[in-house]
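REQUEST ID: PR-0412
SUBMITTED BY: lab tech R.K.
PRIORITY: routine
TASK: structure prediction, single protein chain
INPUT:
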Amino acid sequence: MNPVEIVAFDGEDWTTLSLLGTTQAWNWQQGSQLQWLGNSGHVIYNDFVGGVCKSVETDLGGKRVAVHPYPIAAVSPAGDVLAAICFESFGAGMPAYGYAFSTHGARSNVDSDVLILFTIDGEELARLPGSGLPRVEDEGGVAAESFISHIIFSARGRRVAFMRRCAVPGRRVRSTLFVYDLETRAISRAPFHNMVSHYCWLGDTKIFAFANTRNYGDAFYVWDLETDCVDSWAAVLGANDGHPHTQADGRWVLLDTYPDRFRLQHLKLWEVGTENNLELAAHYAPISFWGDERVDLHPRLRADGKYACIDCSTTGRRSLATFRVIQ
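STATUS: complete
OUTPUT:
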């Protein structure tokens, strides 16, 4: 795969573009994991450095500040703790989410099926092997590619959620959601059955997820970590999967849908815990964007909830759209 550019948008309506760097470690679904490092004014993203997948930190002038020892999958809100996974095993289990290691003669220095938490200064805080966690249900003894993915820190950074997944060709990926507490070092398992696809934190003690349970099947649920209770919101949000994202206080969730039979991707804003579920837009998704190269909306709310952005293919080109959210 060709390298992609790492850029920052600034100025009125975010139309001023600055080139910060390039990377060969990227994919269509999660890019290079480009993220802000707290309020430092720095960004971090993955790249192949010296034949190894690592994370690169730059300032907004494009100056390389540091190369960190592992690739990053998530950054804590304060920017002081990073989470690393193996993108080779992730890509083996879900090809659209890996990097072109073999093409570039690169390797991973994170073991398969392991989550590493480390500080911005390089101190390792925890190494969590998936093999030491409860197994994903219904593996059925069939050989599976096990890997860890979709890492998200809670609003204050005390906890980090992650999925351990098992991929068997021809079957739905099996997933179990876990939460690790950085203060107590305790690991909690979400009380879902064998599937979690997308989720986000609601503050520090609740998780909103599209998952399944034995009693109610596939739906959006809210899991309260303090009570271990799970509430279904299928009656309000339906049973269609999507990508949720929330503002810092967890009051509102912005979420999308996959294309319906008319190829429309619906963008919705839900006031958490209520029946207030507003449809903001319906974007046409050209059939040319399909499979691994699909363009999901992947909505992202700004921390204060006033602005949001989405990925978009309506015009026939991949683009980034920003808009003001009226609440």
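NOTES: The two ends are 41 Å apart (CA to CA).
REVIEWED BY: pending
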